[in-house]
Structure formats: C-alpha cells, structure tokens
Fold this protein.
Amino acid sequence: MNDEMTDADGLELQRQAAIGRLLAGVVHEISAPLAAVVSNRDIESRLLEKIEQAANAAATGKVTDLVAACREMAAVDRVACERISHLVRSMKTAARAADPVPQRVQINQIVDGALELAKTEFRARIAVETDFGELPEVECLPHLMSQAILNLVTNAGQAIVGTGKITAGTRLEGDRAHIWIADTGPGIRPEDQTKVLKQSFTTKPLGSGTGLGLPIVNRIVTERHGGTVDFETAAGYGTTFHIRIPLQYKSAPDAESVSPELNEREGVEPIA
Amino acid sequence: MPENRKPSVMLVDDEAMILTTIRTLLTVEADYEICTFTDPLAAVKHLDGNAVDIVVSDYMMPGLTGIEFLAESKRLQPEATRVLLTGHADKGSAIKAINEVGLFQYLEKPWDNDQLLLVIQQGLERSQLLRELRERISELDVAHSTLKSSQARLLKAFL
C-alpha cells in the first residue's frame, strides 16, 4: 500500500475542490469593480465629447460640471482598480504555492491571504476580524500552511449559520508560532469532538463537504511541520482552532516513517 | 406619472461604486430623478410612500437578495418596472427567479451602457403606460358608478 500516493492524491483533490469554490467567489468579487471601470471608461469618453462641445460653445459653467463628473469617475476607477489589484495579490500568494521547499515567510500575510480569499465566499454574511501579533519569519511549506489555514477559515465560514464573525489571530509562543481561527458557529457536538480531525468525517449535507478539510489540516500541521492542532468549542458560542508550529522547519518525516495508524488516531481532546 | 414630474429611478446595489457610475451615466445621458441605496432594507422603506417608476437592483446583497427585494418592491409599487443587474456567477438561479417577481429585464455585470440606458428608458415607458391604464380604468369606474346612480335616480323618478 502506497501511503504517500494516497496522501498526495487526497491533498490534490482537496486543493482542486477548494480552488473551484474560491473561483466562483473571486468571479463575483471582481465583477463589481470591473463593471464599474468598464462603465466608467465609456462614460468618460461620453463626457469628454460633451466637454468638447460645451467648450466650443464657450459655456463655462457647463464645462465645470462635466469636469467634476469626470473627476468623480476617475476616483471610482482608482478605488475599483485598487480592489482588483488587492485581490490579484492575494491570489498570487496562494498560487506561489506550488513550490515544495521550505521558505521563510510572514505567517500573518499567509493568514491574511487566506482570509481575503475566503471572504469572497462569505462576504455578505460573515464579518472578519484579525488580531495579529508580532511574529518573526517562520520557516515552513507556505503552500501547505496556506491550505491548512484556508481550510480552517472555510470550515469556520461554513459552520456559521446565517450571519456571524470569524476572528483570526497570531502570537509568538517561545520557539513556536500560534495561529488561531475562531468562529461564532454552533460549536462541535460532544459526540463529534473526537472525530472531527479524523479522515472523512463530516456533518455537512451530502455535496457540501468532503470531510477531508480538518484531517488535512491535522496532517499538514502535525506530519509536515511537527506542530499541533487542537480546538476549543462551546455549544452555541462557537469553535476556536489552534495551530502551533515551530519557527524553524524540521524536515518532514519520510513517508515510510509516518505511522499507518495516524489515519486512525483519535482527534486531540478539546481544551474546554 | 404626472406630466410635471421627472421619471423616478431607484438604484440598489451594496457596492457604492456601482451606484456612482450608473448615477453619473443617467445624469449625463438623461434627465431623471435618481435615488440610490446600498442597503435594500432602506430602499424598501423608501418605496413605502415615495413613488418610483423603475427599480434597478443587484442580486447578491446583505439583508435581502435582489429577488427578495424586488418581490417587496412589487408588493409596494406593482406598477414600477423591475430590473435585475447581477454579477452573480449562477445565472440559472437568477433566471429561474425572474417569474417570481415579474422581472422586466435581466442584465449582467459588466453591462453595456447603451443597453442599460435603453432598458431604463423602455422600463419607464412601460410603467408610465401601466399608470395611465390604471388611471383610465379608475376613470371608467367613476363613470360607471355615476351612470349607475343616474340610472337609480331615473328609475326612482319613473316608478
């Protein structure tokens, strides 16, 4: 049995599913600023034509009004372009991805990028807050850490029924970086708490969750980074997931040395 | 709509930049009374008491979806023309909802300004025709009841 292949396939499938979901959100997010710019370009040429006519007729008051309208359009274009650029930058961070060597990165940027992407999916109903601490550069596999954090944020968003809030934070804890993602969802039921980090467990309706999200987070953090994943949950108040990874990357264990029973092991005990 | 009143256009989109660009387009190319709302619930409040001839609404908004909002606007002002302007990727569900709110037109972002202007102009003509129709019907009603009471008086006089 080839554990490495299974692991890689699972991660790849999960990545593709997440990318597809995000793409729909990104398309929606880009459409408003893009529509504004497309329309404004057209309005600006209409305005310029009228300005030309008005100038020819030497109607000064009219020219002033038209120029003011042009300025307003230019201001909207600037904001719209900034929005598109910001989104494209976030997508680049996620896409830089593919490089499988450890890099020294700003974890806060990775968390921010994941939030930015996830926001496109939940924008209207979920508020996002950050509480970033000062962190040195952390040596890790950025594409996998991005995915782990994105999975937690996406999960948090899906857990929240109706409107709510996701809070993401970071702190330095000795020689470790601590990252947490908190949601205001319904919490994890006591009978499910030992299962959520295990393979293919889901409470989501058929078709809306693969059951791979949290186990993948667990494997990325524990197996690939020598870190820990745990959570606190309270019925009716929400759930907070904690990731802790060393600041210095420790080379990943060989596929052979990853114990097969890792797939079967129980999730960590809840703190609260 | 009365002859002395400018046609009234309501724009609803949670993105202020969309409202600004359409408002400017309408100001440059037409002569309408324009009101804009980023909050569909505030727009509903406005519709309850202020006559509007056409409502152009976004689809994905916090508070109410475009369809829910347009359903409310249909309830409050049935003669106002309803247009959906959406950047939503799921075209199917939006189109399915068209029948629910008696939608006049469905436009996608980014839109073509000439097309938007034409849709708004046609929509305004449509609501004006509907209002005129209603006025004629109520005039007919008045004439009918006058006729009935005259008839009753006539009958009384002769019986």
Q: What stands out?
A: Residues 34 and 59 of chain B are 20 Å apart (CA to CA). Chain B has one domain: 8-158.
